[in-house]
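Structure tokens please, single chain.
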Amino acid sequence: MAEDSAAKHRARQTIRNLALSLLACLGLVLALVLIVPRDDSSRIQRVDYKSIGADVASSTGLAIVIPDLPEGWWCNKATWTGKSPDGVKTWYIGFVGPNNQYVGFTQAFDVNPTWFVGQLGEGAAAVQPKKVGDWFQYDSLVQHDPAKTRDHVWALGFSGIEKAKGNAYLLYGAEKLEDFKTIAGVLKLDASMAGAGTNG
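Here you go.
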């Protein structure tokens, strides 16, 4: 009988010890969560596209587009490609909006129809573009939800693939086409600039 009582006491003691250990562990985890500092800022660095663009313009002699962004917008990438495999030179800027929306802008020099088709989404080259002001909107045959980068591409002044010669200005990446309008508004481009030759 005494042995039975001792066994029950040991079992109760084991459960109590287990519960206390569990509480201690939870307390330790909670303390670590509270005292360890966390950096909630974006890991994507802002890029000084104006400085990079000025350097590109200075070194190439080309009229590089360097817009002033609307309130809340910033740049996450700015790159110059002196010459791609198909012979096209490109100035690219990636813009991020106040709600983390993205719009990419490409200014290209000495373009050709092959390069232009490669910039469009799946099957977009086969579809008649829609006119939006001076821009033409090329829509991919396959539309994604959420939208993918090349589901919609705006080209300034190019109403067809065969007209892709000289200079090109492209916008892409926006889930909401209003974001295209926002960025197109600050680029201050004239449709006559598309297709014009280069001086370098």
